[in-house]
Write a sequence for this structure.
């Protein structure tokens, strides 16, 4: 989508700058970009979401992840993640995994935080328990890669409280992140 936005921006603004017109103001440029974004949003929402929401497409997205085709998987997962059911939560989790595998730690972090917030709001347990634990560990990894050790240590503390059997993971994470030096080694 960024590629299209960039192309539209160049398309709208290039003629004005080519003529070296002084009258083109930043406000006008911003308005053109906003209009281009609206146009792109309209184009992107013309996809028949009901067709995408076919359960077989979700499985294809998971298969795409296994094959390393993250961009392909993300398109489907984004549509599934818009819902309010268990499938939406799963899609959000796998979307975070895609971003993580692409080393887009910022987007992965935001996606895993969103997943963890939604799963707590929904108070769903069972099969999502493993996903919740895994998402928490991925979140630690994202924070660590984004040079946010205090946040990473805070998540490790939460993992310690919620998953008492994760003693080895907690111990290793605390040592690696040097949580005791950051004041995040206390058991709460």
């Amino acid at each position: 989508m960024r590629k299209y936005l960039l192309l539209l921006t160049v398309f709208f603004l290039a003629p004005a700058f080519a003529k070296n017109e002084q009258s083109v103001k930043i406000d006008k440029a911003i308005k053109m970009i906003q209009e281009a974004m609206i146009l792109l949003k309209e184009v992107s929402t013309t996809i028949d979401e009901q067709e995408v929401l076919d359960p077989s497409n979700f499985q294809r997205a998971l298969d795409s992840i296994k094959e390393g085709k993250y961009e392909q998987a993300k398109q489907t997962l984004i549509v599934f993640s818009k819902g309010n059911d268990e499938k939406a939560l799963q899609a959000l989790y796998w979307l975070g995994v895609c971003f993580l595998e692409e080393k887009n730690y910022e987007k992965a972090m935001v996606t895993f935080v969103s997943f963890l917030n939604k799963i707590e709001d929904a108070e769903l347990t069972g099969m999502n328990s493993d996903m919740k634990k895994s998402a928490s560990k991925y979140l630690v990894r994202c924070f660590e890669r984004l040079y946010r050790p205090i946040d990473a240590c805070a998540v490790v503390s939460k993992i310690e409280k919620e998953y008492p059997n994760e003693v080895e993971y907690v111990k290793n994470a605390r040592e690696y992140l040097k949580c005791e030096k950051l004041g995040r080694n206390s058991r709460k």
